[in-house]
Design brief:
42% helix
Length: 206
């Protein structure tokens, strides 16, 4: 398994302001596979924790190499659900960052809204402790399901990532565009950073 990185661009400047780590399997016969093609095997064989550890180690090692080369860029990692039930996760990540000489604010942990919905009390405790250490927290794929606005009110989060399907029709559907604008404005009013996934043309970006 390996990790590739997707850039996060600031729309007002066009500059890269961070990257998101994406897990891939360079299969010898099938080519480069996304998680949807192999995560069922990972779960079936009880490999969620070692795969998560592998991803985190590679991402933090890469971030440390970039920092040593004079490029300090924030990285975001989407953790698998079982990791966010681990109350020791914040301290584990803090130590991993410290060993590499990386500032905690360089790391953003992404969580999915379905996890929050099913285990809100435990997850909220872990999220608070992550932020106490200076690690940023993001809700991933917001808008892919029936997102609860209570998340924005109650959870200790720094960033919301709008799912690509949520924004795909903003150019052709006025109702969709109005909803997206409202969600963006609401998050900005709450001091939450908004990331739009899947912006692939200038018209959508505007």
């Amino acid at each position: 398994l390996t990790v590739v990185y997707q850039p996060k661009l600031a729309l007002d400047t066009g500059k890269i302001v961070g990257v998101e780590a994406l897990l891939r399997w360079p299969h010898p016969n099938l080519g480069l596979l996304s998680p949807g093609a192999f995560m069922s095997l990972v779960r079936q064989h009880g490999l969620m924790r070692p795969v998560t550890d592998l991803v985190l180690d590679q991402v933090l090692d890469d971030a440390a190499q970039w920092k040593a080369a004079g490029v300090q860029i924030p990285v975001a990692v989407n953790l698998f659900a079982p990791m966010l039930r681990d109350t020791q996760l914040p301290e584990t990540l803090f130590r991993a960052l410290a060993r590499r000489g990386l500032p905690t604010e360089l790391l953003t942990i992404e969580i999915t809204e379905d996890l929050v919905l099913s285990e809100v009390t435990l997850v909220t405790t872990v999220l608070h402790r992550l932020r106490d250490h200076g690690i940023r927290v993001a809700i991933d794929d917001f808008g892919s399901g029936y997102s609860a606005l209570a998340y924005l009110r109650d959870l200790p989060i720094d960033e919301v990532k709008l799912d690509s399907h949520f924004i795909a029709s903003v150019v052709t559907d006025n109702r969709a565009a109005a909803v997206v604008r409202a969600v963006i404005d609401l998050n900005h009013d709450l001091g939450i950073t908004v990331v739009a996934e899947g912006v692939e043309d200038a018209q959508t970006a505007v």
